[in-house]
Specification:
The chain has 139 residues and is an alpha/beta fold. Helices cover 38% and strands 19% of the residues. The longest helix is centred in the middle third of the chain and has 14 residues.
Length: 139
């Protein structure tokens, strides 16, 4: 069941410009690539985070969130649920205002930690679904 309100999703989609996409690596064909490309087409800056390094979608890949040398507005997590909590904790540490766990990625304890730290939390949702549904953005 999705976590976070439609109002939260709408606000993040409208105001967050810089999206760290955790799990977006150099090999194509994964869901993270499609969503990140769609975010770029909506005018968002994507920041790939993956230990492989390199480049993807014209952007440098950073090994961890801590390696990103500029502020992140939202941390978008494309990792298994059992790995998501470590990235939520990293989002808290770097001071990101929001964390978005993709469809099927659920870690309620991590979501609670993020909320207690003041982050907006969206979980088991996808911006590529919520953007068109809530804001009428092209799919």
């Amino acid at each position: 069941m999705p976590y976070g309100t439609d109002d939260d999703a709408r606000r993040v989609l409208e105001t967050a410009h810089t999206w760290a996409v955790v799990g977006l690596g150099p090999s194509g064909g994964r869901t993270a690539h499609g969503v990140a490309g769609w975010l770029q087409r909506q005018g968002k800056r994507i920041v790939p985070v993956h230990p492989a390094g390199g480049q993807v979608l014209g952007e440098q890949i950073y090994p961890t969130l801590a390696d990103v040398p500029f502020p992140i507005d939202v941390v978008d997590v494309f990792r298994r649920s059992d790995k998501a909590g470590e990235h939520v904790d990293e989002a808290i540490t770097i001071g990101a205002p929001a964390v978005w766990l993709q469809l099927g990625v659920v870690d309620r304890a991590a979501a609670q930690r993020a909320e207690e730290a003041g982050l907006t939390v969206l979980m088991d949702r996808c911006p590529h679904i919520d953007g068109p549904r809530l804001l009428g953005w092209p799919p």
